[in-house]
Amino acid sequence: MRGVIYRSLRGAKPEAIDFQSHAERNVSSVGPECQKWGLSVWLSEEDVKHARSVMAFFRRKHIACGQVTPLHGVIKRTPSGNQPNHHTYWRDHTIDFVPLFRVVMPPVPASG
Amino acid sequence: MWEPSGKEEPRPFAERLTPSEVLYYFDEPLLFSSDTEHFPTLCYKIDEDQGINEYLVVQSSGDLIERVKRGRISLLSALAQPWCWVAQTDDQFNVKRSWGQSTSSIPPAMLPDQGYALNREHGIVKETHHVISAPFLSLYFKGNDLNRNALPLNIFKTLVDEAYASIWRIFTPAIYELFATERELRKIVNIPIREPAFNSLLIEIEQPAIDVSAMKDPEKLDIEDTNARLRQANTHFLEVAYQISKIVDMGGALNRITDENFDVLAIVSQLAPTDRSYYDLLEISGRTIDKKIPTILINAEAGELLRYAYKAALEDKRTITGVVVEISARSSTFIIRTSQYREITCVPVSREVFEQIAPLVTGTQVRVTGSFIERKRRDRLDVSVLEITGLPGGQPQALML
User: Do A56 and B25 touch (CB under 8 A)?
Assistant: First the structure.
């Protein structure tokens, strides 16, 4: 894949843990085994905005985007009945992704 | 980690929130259905911290999940149940801590934006619930012939009539004795209704209000006491309806319906969907005085069981207490009014009871046992045992005649 991918961050700036899959972090997860080794990503700002509208959890997160090429990893559309636009990205583990990403959307201030 | 303001439950409401269907996934399930030990739920992740995940959990149903998936309702509508839990789990979905909450106490910043369907392709949908204060009582008829855009007029009228009759039947007994006649009661007690929503048909009422301007002598009525009685009646209805629905859900038999609870069974079985109804799901919810009662979900299968239980309860020999309000010397029958404000014609079926009628006067408190027959105008009891429990004016009488 050559293009931009978006990730939600744990903190205010990209860190290595933000690009580690559940399998790498040894965190229990549900779903197909291969998907546990990948990262969920958004491919457009519209997708991020919609995700933030329905999952308030993401409104409190920093969103970063990074430009990737086929050298960085591979991507696959991994839709489910409810998320036709879900994509999983498997990165090249020898590459440090932190410098590739920058915050493009800060947390949304809570209104009221 | 966000911590709810309410009191933590001493024992979490569920052991585990194992995802049974994932509706939104991003590295992990963020929105999923989970079948707990007691009822199906919809779980929505709201926070995380150091290996602990926090979810907003609401009672759910297959129908609700389908509607979310198909974009028929917004995610906010699906989560806006009157009652919810906040659950903290480990990464294996084992519930470590939980709090029962009114959904209206969840900060809007932790909930989906208004109108957004789960799937982007479904766009913006009209909200059917709002996370403002929960209604006093809500009757939600869903599915089958009912749909969002159009509702046949005859079905609308039938459902409104049934809801109207049921709502009065819930509240009238609690305050009947405060008014001279039922006509006066209905003139003075107003039941405000929120804007009905066609999705499928949602009827929500506010707490009935006393119209002081319609009263001849406002000082005669203790408004606070009347309001307390109405709240108690609503709580009683919701509590008993929930117990009944739980027993039916778990395949239990409703074989111990007390006279006090009989009316609730009658109301719920009347409103519940059956295989022949225009709707296939009824949701009942509302505000109670101090206890948490989840949304009561009754599908057509449960509805059939409820009607069967109601019919069986009718056929059972029943003991009913009440006050004699009319005696017919000509037909040797008498009419009693129960504490649930139901008038029942009592017909003696044994010589003993027949002979006992003579000393009865209006106002005598009695306990009658016999076969119950439901009738359109006034129910009938074929009395085989008659006991006088009090004389007019409240004087107790232990003597069994």
Answer: no
